[in-house]
């Protein structure tokens, strides 16, 4: 899969050496520390290196500020529906990222195709997250009514699509981050009853 320069995917298991292993003894224990986050910026100019990506790093900063993130990785893609769908499927089903957040492609321009890429592959829709994001945007601008953001699950990943501007990324993520950790716990098998305090 072609990705922008200096942006890469590393499939496999990430390991951290916790203590020295005596010669002749191999003692490996796989342990996950925190959630894994993949963010994807959809922008022809960013993918071509003509413009710096400002929205993707905002996603990582906000998610890290709310959830324990053990691994985060960013990707730049041009506005390409087929490539986006393939990348999200790989990140969710093969690389098994816990959270996948896209930015860009949710508007009405002819090249805005993020919902068309994601809707066919999402298994469970999360309309409450979409409603929360729209309400947050509408509190700031009437243009929030024009967003076509989507949210749902694919495998054991939560997938969110956000508008392209850093300001809109912040507004939308702030609206759903308080529920994201609980959603991930449930998606990963937490059977604790969802009691209201």
Report on the structure:
It is an enzyme of class 2 (transferase). Residues 38-183 form the MoaB/Mog domain. This protein is an alpha/beta fold. It has a single domain (36-187), classed as Molybdenum Cofactor Biosythetic Enzyme, Chain A (3-Layer(aba) Sandwich). The chain has 6 helices and 6 strands, in the order βααβαβαβαββα. The chain has helices at 44-47, 55-66, 81-94, 114-118, 127-138, 166-187, and strands at residues 35-42, 69-77, 99-103, 124-125, 151-154, 157-162. It has a 6-stranded mixed sheet, with helices on both faces. A hairpin with a 2-residue loop joins strand 5 and strand 6. The radius of gyration is 18 Å and the shape is globular. It starts with 34 loop residues before the first strand and ends in a 10-residue tail after the last helix. The relative contact order is 0.16. The model is unreliable at 4-11 (pLDDT under 50).
The level 1 CATH classification is Alpha Beta
Indicate the CATH topology. Answer: Molybdenum Cofactor Biosythetic Enzyme, Chain A
Biggest β-sheet description:
6 strands, mixed
> What does the oligomeric state look like here?
single chain
Q: Which strand-content bin applies to the residues?
A: 15-25%
Parts with pLDDT < 50 across at least 5 consecutive residues = 4-11
Q: Could you say which overall geometry the principal axes of the C-alpha atoms support?
A: globular
* Quantity of strands, as a count: 6
CATH architecture field = 3-Layer(aba) Sandwich
SSE sequence, one letter per element:
EHHEHEHEHEEH
Helix/strand-derived category reads alpha/beta
Mean pLDDT: 89
The tally of helices reads 6
Neighbour order of strands in the largest sheet = 2-1-3-6-5-4
Q: Give the N-to-C terminal Cα separation.
A: 46 Å
Radius of gyration: 18 Å
Number of individual domains: 1
What would you give as the CATH superfamily?
Answer: MoaB/Mog-like domain
């Amino acid at each position: 899969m072609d990705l922008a320069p200096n942006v890469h995917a590393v499939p496999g298991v990430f390991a951290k050496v916790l203590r020295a292993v005596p010669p002749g003894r191999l003692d490996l224990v796989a342990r996950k520390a925190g959630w894994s986050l993949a963010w994807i910026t959809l922008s022809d100019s960013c993918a071509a290196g003509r413009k710096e990506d400002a929205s993707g790093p905002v996603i990582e900063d906000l998610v890290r500020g709310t959830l324990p993130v053990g691994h985060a990785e960013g990707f730049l893609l041009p506005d390409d529906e087929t490539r986006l769908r393939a990348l999200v499927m790989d990140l969710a089903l093969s690389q098994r990222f816990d959270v996948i957040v896209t930015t860009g492609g949710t508007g009405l321009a002819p090249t805005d195709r993020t919902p068309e890429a994601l809707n066919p592959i999402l298994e469970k829709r999360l309309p409450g997250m979409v409603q929360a994001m729209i309400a947050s945007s509408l509190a700031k601008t009437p243009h929030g009514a024009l967003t076509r953001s989507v949210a749902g699950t694919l495998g054991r990943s939560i997938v969110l699509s956000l508008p392209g501007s850093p300001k809109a990324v912040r507004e939308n993520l702030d609206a759903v981050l308080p529920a994201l950790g609980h959603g991930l716990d449930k998606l990963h098998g937490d059977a604790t009853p969802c009691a209201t305090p």
